[in-house]
Write the structure tokens for this entry.
Amino acid sequence: MTVVEKHEEHGNLVLDCRCKTQDDTEVIAGRAHVKTPTEKIRLPRTELPEVQVSRHERFRAVLAAAAAGGPLVTAIAHPCDANALGAAVEAAHAGLITPILVGPAAKIRAASAAAQVDISPYRLVDTPHSAAAAAEAVALVRRGEAQLLMKGSLHTDELLRAVLEPECGLRTARRTSHVYLMDVPGYPRPLMITDAAVNVAPDLEQKRDIIQNAIDLARIMGIETPRVALLSAVETINPKLRSTLDAAALCKMADRGQITGALVDGPLAFDNAVSPEAAAEKGIVSPVAGLADILVVPDLEAGNMLAKQLTFLAGADAAGVVLGARVPIILTSRADAERTRLASCAVAVQMARAGSPAP
């Protein structure tokens, strides 16, 4: 704004007003006639609301870091519908993976037509059915022809059956488990939830592996000392609630070096795990309470419901990956947005590059 006229007798100003974009393109121009005050005006300071420009920055950073190192060869088990095949091709176009499509060739080509994607650049391995596709995809990884494994349109149980096959699967000494890496609006850091997809009702030993898998992933994602909250309905030990007894035992296991690389505390109710105010209200003194990076749920039902509530009611994005096998396993869902599918691939790519910590 520029003052172009000044009428002191009436206390008026004429302002020449021009608005330009960052590339100096003029979008608004005009003149404003302003009545100037005769006395200085003072108003109380107004608190401005917190403004969140974008809630996808964390996933954008993950995608950029993963794509920077070039694509990894990935065996896609049974990509026989438009959604599963489209997810693989999206990840390839993003520079994250080079797909090997494993499944019935006729069904894959039909899915290609339905999704309107070109699969001619990619290797196609023909198998008679989904079980054979899972077995062959696992075999490609074992032979060193693929560095990652990705679920197509077969059921998760069918894929994991091939992964966990004692003689020709991808087992390690570590229990396999699933982790959601979530970008939750309003939460100031990435939030990981485990296990919401693989282990139905894990015992104490299995929970130790589930926690260690998540810690290893968090460290790969740049969280040097992740804070692990062991969730229950309450924050005190109750002999009638197994989750509180498990939490107490797991904390002691962390104290004795059976769980490493993180701060572990529990039992904690969900509010006490993610809200410093809620933790303070309950008088909980803990380096984890209110600041959790990893939420360990009591069982699959609790984890699945928590992750989906954050996704569908809180607008969170959730990237999912299975850990504990010889290579990371990418799990995607029909309901996932494109950025979520790509983020799942990106997390797995970063894990593969870092090397699997599981023995």
